[in-house]
Design brief:
The protein has 7 helices and 8 strands; from the N terminus they run βαβαβαββαββααβα. By secondary structure, it is α/β, with parallel strands linked by helices. The chain has one domain: Spore Coat Polysaccharide Biosynthesis Protein SpsA, Chain A. Strands 3-2-1-4-7-6-8-5 form an 8-stranded mixed β-sheet, with helices on both faces. The longest helix is centred in the last third of the chain and has 14 residues.
Length: 230
């Protein structure tokens, strides 16, 4: 069983595809949506839908990436957490993901590429590649889309709330690596990151926080500010 966790904010037009691609396509999933204060009908749509596999968490205002991810993880039902976005679609069946999951690894990275919904059926777009080849992105340094075992959040902490947005996901991936958790790159599990206007903002100090944390992780030291999943 997998809990897919993501934030959303005024992206009502994306939600039907997101829901169809996740909880409507596989009964082994739940979708934890943390809403940052949408006023475009998102809340009303989700409440009217009343989907048994969707958990809606209303924050009431825009928050940082670590805040809404940690909030979603704290409310997730299952031991596998899927880091996700509201504007991405899994190209595979989720059964393909589940077949790869075992106790041998703690973190799974999915291969991803920018595109549009129609590209998913395009043979040329689907030609595989890694590390930037053919537009695909797959690296152990950052987990853009993939799975964490919850034990990581219990043992070495959750996303660092000191980050505003960028680098928080890379920080989490690198921390799990430095503390000895086993990663696996799943080249054949493909994600289409839909080309949409991005709302995330760059904050220069996020890189400084990341660099400082990495030096601590190299020495097996966790920052005091880290929260732990209970």
């Amino acid at each position: 069983m997998i809990s897919i966790v993501t934030g959303t904010l005024n992206r009502l037009s994306l939600l039907p595809n997101l829901i169809q691609n996740t909880v409507d396509s596989c009964d082994k999933l739940e979708l934890v949506l943390v809403d940052g204060g949408s006023n475009d009908g998102t809340i009303e749509y989700l409440k009217k839908l009343s989907h048994p596999k969707i958990k809606l968490i209303e924050v009431g205002g825009r928050s940082s990436y670590p805040h809404f991810m940690n909030l979603g993880i704290n409310n997730a039902s299952h031991e596998w957490i899927c880091q996700w976005n509201d504007d991405v679609l899994l190209v595979n069946d989720w059964s393909d993901v589940l077949k790869n999951v075992s106790n041998q690894f703690d973190v799974y990275h999915f291969n991803w590429k920018y595109g549009n919904v129609v590209d998913i059926e395009n043979n040329e777009w689907n030609i595989l590649g890694t590390h930037g080849k053919n537009g695909w992105c797959l690296t152990e340094s950052v987990l853009n889309y993939g799975l964490y075992n919850k034990k990581i959040f219990r043992e070495v902490g959750m996303y660092d709330n000191e980050f505003k947005y960028y680098y928080a996901d890379g920080d989490m991936a690198k921390r799990s690596t430095y503390f000895g958790y086993k990663h696996k790159l799943l080249e054949n599990i493909k994600v289409c990151s839909i080309i949409t206007p991005k709302k995330a903002l760059h904050y220069p100090n996020d890189k400084n926080i990341y660099d400082k944390n990495i030096e601590s992780y190299k020495n097996k030291i966790l920052p005091n500010k880290i929260e732990f999943l209970k």
